[in-house]
Design a protein that fits this description.
Rossmann fold; two-stranded antiparallel sheet; alpha/beta; about 230 residues; binds flavin mononucleotide
Protein backbone atom coordinates (compact mmCIF):
# COMPACT_ATOMS: atom_id res chain seq x y z
CA UNK A 1 0.00 0.00 0.00
CA UNK A 2 1.44 3.38 -0.97
CA UNK A 3 0.80 6.22 1.46
CA UNK A 4 1.43 9.86 0.68
CA UNK A 5 1.71 12.26 3.63
CA UNK A 6 1.08 15.88 2.69
CA UNK A 7 2.44 17.83 5.63
CA UNK A 8 0.55 21.11 5.60
CA UNK A 9 2.35 22.66 8.54
CA UNK A 10 4.35 25.76 7.59
CA UNK A 11 6.86 24.52 10.20
CA UNK A 12 7.79 21.58 7.89
CA UNK A 13 9.86 19.00 9.87
CA UNK A 14 9.37 20.98 13.11
CA UNK A 15 5.61 20.42 12.94
CA UNK A 16 3.81 19.30 16.11
CA UNK A 17 1.21 17.53 13.97
CA UNK A 18 3.83 15.57 12.06
CA UNK A 19 4.45 13.56 15.26
CA UNK A 20 0.86 12.36 14.91
CA UNK A 21 1.26 11.53 11.22
CA UNK A 22 4.52 9.65 11.77
CA UNK A 23 3.05 7.60 14.64
CA UNK A 24 -0.01 6.79 12.49
CA UNK A 25 2.23 5.68 9.61
CA UNK A 26 4.41 3.58 11.96
CA UNK A 27 1.22 1.84 13.04
CA UNK A 28 0.19 1.28 9.44
CA UNK A 29 3.62 -0.21 8.68
CA UNK A 30 3.29 -2.58 11.64
CA UNK A 31 0.06 -4.03 10.23
CA UNK A 32 0.59 -4.07 6.46
CA UNK A 33 3.10 -3.74 3.69
CA UNK A 34 3.16 0.05 3.59
CA UNK A 35 5.46 2.45 1.78
CA UNK A 36 5.31 6.06 2.99
CA UNK A 37 6.32 9.23 1.16
CA UNK A 38 6.28 12.59 2.97
CA UNK A 39 5.97 15.92 1.19
CA UNK A 40 6.39 19.19 3.09
CA UNK A 41 3.98 21.44 1.21
CA UNK A 42 5.65 24.65 2.42
CA UNK A 43 8.86 23.67 0.60
CA UNK A 44 7.13 23.39 -2.75
CA UNK A 45 6.41 26.19 -5.19
CA UNK A 46 2.68 26.05 -5.69
CA UNK A 47 0.85 28.93 -7.36
CA UNK A 48 -2.80 29.71 -6.71
CA UNK A 49 -5.49 28.10 -8.86
CA UNK A 50 -6.65 30.86 -11.21
CA UNK A 51 -9.97 29.18 -11.98
CA UNK A 52 -9.40 28.93 -15.75
CA UNK A 53 -10.89 25.39 -15.81
CA UNK A 54 -8.61 24.41 -18.71
CA UNK A 55 -7.75 21.21 -16.76
CA UNK A 56 -11.43 20.25 -16.88
CA UNK A 57 -11.49 20.55 -20.67
CA UNK A 58 -8.16 18.98 -21.59
CA UNK A 59 -8.45 15.75 -19.60
CA UNK A 60 -6.58 16.88 -16.50
CA UNK A 61 -3.49 18.95 -17.25
CA UNK A 62 -2.95 22.20 -15.35
CA UNK A 63 -1.58 25.11 -17.36
CA UNK A 64 0.53 26.32 -14.42
CA UNK A 65 4.07 24.91 -14.48
CA UNK A 66 5.14 24.47 -10.87
CA UNK A 67 5.65 21.76 -8.22
CA UNK A 68 1.96 20.82 -8.15
CA UNK A 69 2.52 18.51 -11.12
CA UNK A 70 4.81 16.38 -8.93
CA UNK A 71 2.22 16.29 -6.12
CA UNK A 72 -0.55 15.28 -8.55
CA UNK A 73 1.63 12.46 -9.92
CA UNK A 74 2.32 11.26 -6.37
CA UNK A 75 -1.40 11.35 -5.54
CA UNK A 76 -2.28 9.37 -8.67
CA UNK A 77 0.19 6.63 -7.77
CA UNK A 78 -0.87 6.39 -4.09
CA UNK A 79 -3.54 4.39 -2.29
CA UNK A 80 -3.92 6.60 0.78
CA UNK A 81 -3.40 10.36 1.06
CA UNK A 82 -2.80 11.64 4.58
CA UNK A 83 -3.42 15.35 5.01
CA UNK A 84 -1.49 16.28 8.14
CA UNK A 85 -1.98 19.86 9.25
CA UNK A 86 -2.39 22.19 12.23
CA UNK A 87 -5.62 24.05 12.73
CA UNK A 88 -5.09 27.64 11.55
CA UNK A 89 -7.95 30.06 12.23
CA UNK A 90 -10.36 27.10 12.46
CA UNK A 91 -9.33 25.79 9.06
CA UNK A 92 -6.28 24.54 7.26
CA UNK A 93 -3.11 26.59 6.69
CA UNK A 94 -3.19 28.57 3.43
CA UNK A 95 -0.38 26.66 1.64
CA UNK A 96 -2.33 23.41 2.06
CA UNK A 97 -5.62 25.01 1.02
CA UNK A 98 -3.78 26.05 -2.11
CA UNK A 99 -2.89 22.40 -2.77
CA UNK A 100 -6.53 21.39 -2.25
CA UNK A 101 -7.70 23.99 -4.79
CA UNK A 102 -5.09 22.72 -7.25
CA UNK A 103 -6.59 19.19 -7.12
CA UNK A 104 -8.97 20.34 -9.89
CA UNK A 105 -7.13 18.35 -12.63
CA UNK A 106 -8.03 15.09 -10.85
CA UNK A 107 -11.73 15.38 -11.62
CA UNK A 108 -13.76 15.90 -14.76
CA UNK A 109 -16.07 18.75 -15.79
CA UNK A 110 -19.12 16.55 -15.14
CA UNK A 111 -21.22 17.54 -12.14
CA UNK A 112 -23.03 14.69 -10.45
CA UNK A 113 -25.78 14.79 -7.87
CA UNK A 114 -25.30 12.45 -4.96
CA UNK A 115 -28.02 10.78 -2.91
CA UNK A 116 -28.02 13.51 -0.27
CA UNK A 117 -28.38 16.27 -2.88
CA UNK A 118 -24.73 17.28 -2.75
CA UNK A 119 -23.08 17.96 -6.10
CA UNK A 120 -19.47 17.19 -6.94
CA UNK A 121 -17.22 16.57 -9.93
CA UNK A 122 -16.55 12.95 -10.99
CA UNK A 123 -13.02 11.80 -10.29
CA UNK A 124 -10.99 10.69 -13.31
CA UNK A 125 -10.78 6.97 -13.97
CA UNK A 126 -8.87 4.97 -11.38
CA UNK A 127 -8.95 7.72 -8.72
CA UNK A 128 -12.28 6.77 -7.13
CA UNK A 129 -10.64 4.23 -4.87
CA UNK A 130 -8.23 6.75 -3.29
CA UNK A 131 -8.57 6.85 0.49
CA UNK A 132 -8.11 10.00 2.55
CA UNK A 133 -7.04 10.64 6.13
CA UNK A 134 -7.14 14.01 7.85
CA UNK A 135 -4.82 14.33 10.83
CA UNK A 136 -5.25 17.71 12.46
CA UNK A 137 -3.62 19.07 15.58
CA UNK A 138 -4.42 22.32 17.33
CA UNK A 139 -3.15 24.61 20.05
CA UNK A 140 -6.25 25.00 22.21
CA UNK A 141 -7.44 22.21 24.52
CA UNK A 142 -11.03 22.22 23.24
CA UNK A 143 -12.16 20.27 20.19
CA UNK A 144 -15.71 21.61 20.29
CA UNK A 145 -15.97 25.19 18.98
CA UNK A 146 -12.62 24.63 17.28
CA UNK A 147 -12.28 21.78 14.74
CA UNK A 148 -15.80 21.89 13.25
CA UNK A 149 -15.15 24.02 10.14
CA UNK A 150 -11.99 22.11 9.16
CA UNK A 151 -13.74 18.77 9.67
CA UNK A 152 -16.76 19.84 7.63
CA UNK A 153 -14.60 21.13 4.81
CA UNK A 154 -12.75 17.80 4.66
CA UNK A 155 -16.01 15.85 4.76
CA UNK A 156 -17.42 17.83 1.86
CA UNK A 157 -14.23 17.77 -0.19
CA UNK A 158 -13.69 14.05 0.33
CA UNK A 159 -17.20 12.58 0.70
CA UNK A 160 -16.09 8.94 0.48
CA UNK A 161 -13.27 6.76 1.80
CA UNK A 162 -12.17 9.22 4.45
CA UNK A 163 -11.12 9.08 8.07
CA UNK A 164 -10.75 12.13 10.28
CA UNK A 165 -8.62 12.38 13.41
CA UNK A 166 -8.35 15.59 15.40
CA UNK A 167 -5.98 15.92 18.35
CA UNK A 168 -6.10 18.98 20.62
CA UNK A 169 -3.14 20.30 22.68
CA UNK A 170 -0.73 19.22 19.96
CA UNK A 171 2.13 21.67 20.79
CA UNK A 172 2.85 19.21 23.62
CA UNK A 173 4.20 16.74 21.04
CA UNK A 174 7.24 19.00 20.64
CA UNK A 175 7.86 19.56 24.34
CA UNK A 176 10.20 16.91 25.80
CA UNK A 177 8.93 17.65 29.35
CA UNK A 178 5.49 16.45 28.24
CA UNK A 179 6.79 13.02 27.15
CA UNK A 180 4.91 11.33 29.98
CA UNK A 181 1.64 12.42 28.35
CA UNK A 182 2.57 12.41 24.67
CA UNK A 183 4.30 9.04 24.48
CA UNK A 184 1.20 7.03 25.52
CA UNK A 185 -0.88 9.17 23.12
CA UNK A 186 1.50 8.44 20.24
CA UNK A 187 1.20 4.73 21.10
CA UNK A 188 -2.60 5.02 20.77
CA UNK A 189 -2.19 6.83 17.46
CA UNK A 190 0.09 4.01 16.31
CA UNK A 191 -2.64 1.51 17.24
CA UNK A 192 -5.11 3.60 15.24
CA UNK A 193 -2.77 3.46 12.23
CA UNK A 194 -2.49 -0.32 12.57
CA UNK A 195 -6.28 -0.70 12.72
CA UNK A 196 -6.71 1.59 9.74
CA UNK A 197 -4.20 -0.36 7.65
CA UNK A 198 -5.73 -3.69 8.63
CA UNK A 199 -9.47 -2.85 8.47
CA UNK A 200 -9.79 0.53 6.79
CA UNK A 201 -11.33 2.00 9.93
CA UNK A 202 -10.68 2.78 13.58
CA UNK A 203 -12.83 1.46 16.42
CA UNK A 204 -14.95 4.14 18.12
CA UNK A 205 -13.40 3.56 21.56
CA UNK A 206 -9.86 3.97 20.22
CA UNK A 207 -10.88 7.02 18.20
CA UNK A 208 -12.31 8.58 21.35
CA UNK A 209 -9.06 7.92 23.24
CA UNK A 210 -6.91 9.32 20.44
CA UNK A 211 -8.91 12.54 20.01
CA UNK A 212 -9.44 13.47 23.66
CA UNK A 213 -7.29 16.13 25.38
CA UNK A 214 -4.12 14.83 27.06
CA UNK A 215 -4.54 17.25 29.97
CA UNK A 216 -7.76 18.71 31.44
CA UNK A 217 -8.43 21.98 29.59
CA UNK A 218 -7.90 24.43 32.41
CA UNK A 219 -4.65 22.82 33.55
CA UNK A 220 -3.39 22.83 29.97
CA UNK A 221 -4.37 26.50 29.55
CA UNK A 222 -2.63 27.43 32.78
CA UNK A 223 0.47 25.50 31.74
CA UNK A 224 0.43 27.10 28.26
CA UNK A 225 -0.04 30.59 29.70
CA UNK A 226 2.96 30.15 32.01
CA UNK A 227 5.14 28.52 29.36
C1 LIG B 1 -1.93 31.44 12.35
C2 LIG B 1 -2.29 30.44 13.39
C3 LIG B 1 -3.63 30.16 13.60
C4 LIG B 1 -3.99 29.22 14.58
N1 LIG B 1 -5.32 28.95 14.77
C5 LIG B 1 -5.68 28.05 15.71
C6 LIG B 1 -7.06 27.74 15.93
O1 LIG B 1 -7.95 28.24 15.26
N2 LIG B 1 -7.35 26.85 16.91
C7 LIG B 1 -6.39 26.26 17.69
O2 LIG B 1 -6.72 25.47 18.57
N3 LIG B 1 -5.08 26.49 17.46
C8 LIG B 1 -4.70 27.37 16.50
N4 LIG B 1 -3.37 27.60 16.25
C9 LIG B 1 -2.36 26.81 16.98
C10 LIG B 1 -1.77 25.66 16.15
O3 LIG B 1 -2.82 24.85 15.61
C11 LIG B 1 -0.88 24.80 17.03
O4 LIG B 1 0.20 25.58 17.50
C12 LIG B 1 -0.37 23.56 16.36
O5 LIG B 1 0.17 22.69 17.33
C13 LIG B 1 0.73 23.86 15.34
O6 LIG B 1 1.02 22.65 14.68
P1 LIG B 1 2.25 22.44 13.71
O7 LIG B 1 3.51 22.53 14.57
O8 LIG B 1 2.04 21.08 13.15
O9 LIG B 1 2.25 23.54 12.69
C14 LIG B 1 -2.98 28.56 15.32
C15 LIG B 1 -1.64 28.84 15.08
C16 LIG B 1 -1.29 29.79 14.14
C17 LIG B 1 0.18 30.09 13.92
Amino acid sequence: MKVLVLNGSPKAERSDTLHIARAFCDGMKSAADVEVKEIHVIKKRIEYCTGCFVCKKNGGTCVIRDDMAEILDEIKSSDVIIYSFPLYSYGMPAPLKNVIDRLMPLSSWAMVREENGKYGHTMHKGLDSLRYVMLCGCGFPNSKHNFEAAVRQFELKFPRNRTIITVPESPMFNIPQADELTKPRLELIKQAGAQYAANGEIEAELMQAVTSPMLPDQIYAQFANNF
